[in-house]
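Chain A, query sequence.
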Amino acid sequence: MKQGDLVVRKSYGGDVLFRIAFMNQQAATLKGTDYRLLADSPISDLSVVRNPEYTGAARLARIKEHESLRRMREQREQQAVKGEEELRRTFNQSQQPFFEMPGKVLHLDGDANYLKKSMQLYSQMRVPAHGVYAHESQMADTVYRLLPQLKPDIVVITGHDGVLKSRESNDLYSLASYKNSKNFVDAVQIARNYEKSRDGLIVVAGACQSHFEALLYAGANFASSPGRVLIHALDPVYVAIKASFTPIRETINLSDVIQGTISGFDGVGGIETIGKYRVGLPKPKTLTGVKPTV
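Chain A, predicted structure.
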């Protein structure tokens, strides 16, 4: 067994597939491959997985992921048709081709592998996005530095989290009971100090089992995890894409966006928020034939 191996925890029935991030002779630090979970485990409790696609945990996660992506693409297609119809009504049946301006995303991630997957999905869905890897403890400083530079419409603050097994009390409303929720809260507060309006800057924050209420009170529009459950790596991305493509004339449909995530209502929640998608006329043309006049 070595760093980088895929493993499951025997005491948990192999419910989550992990990769070994760090290890010594007695214990290992584990990162979920599909879920935003960081965990510690004795080496003796770990079992190496040779064929991850055939494990129950990985197979179920892939099925849920594919279903979520299918819904996302269907909703985007439906929205495109609806948007074109509304545009023609608004501009008196104009036949002019229009252009789209989806909301711009700044995505901060405490996991480099998840960041790569997230950026691939943004690209597939044609969402303008800037991704940055940052350790959870550095996210507040990173948000403070990047928001004035990039001026995004949506900021995603995510990585790894979890309820601490070694917490002093059983108080799940204390930030001290969580591995990284305090770091996420600090970053959300920086973002909300930068832009006070929750419609001016949409903040999506949290990871597995994060302190949902604290993140919302700090200023997040959407956060995890109301039921303190594991959330899928792409759940925050799904919410950001939904916000990016919801028209500015509409409020993001809370039920649709939460049901569209892989973890559902126990994993993600939020408040009423106006979308960031805009259209414009006319569509820019190729200007190769323009003659100078000055």
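The CA atoms of residues 49 and 55 lie 8 Å apart. The helical segments are 56-90, 112-124, 139-150, 181-194, 212-218, 235-245, 254-260.
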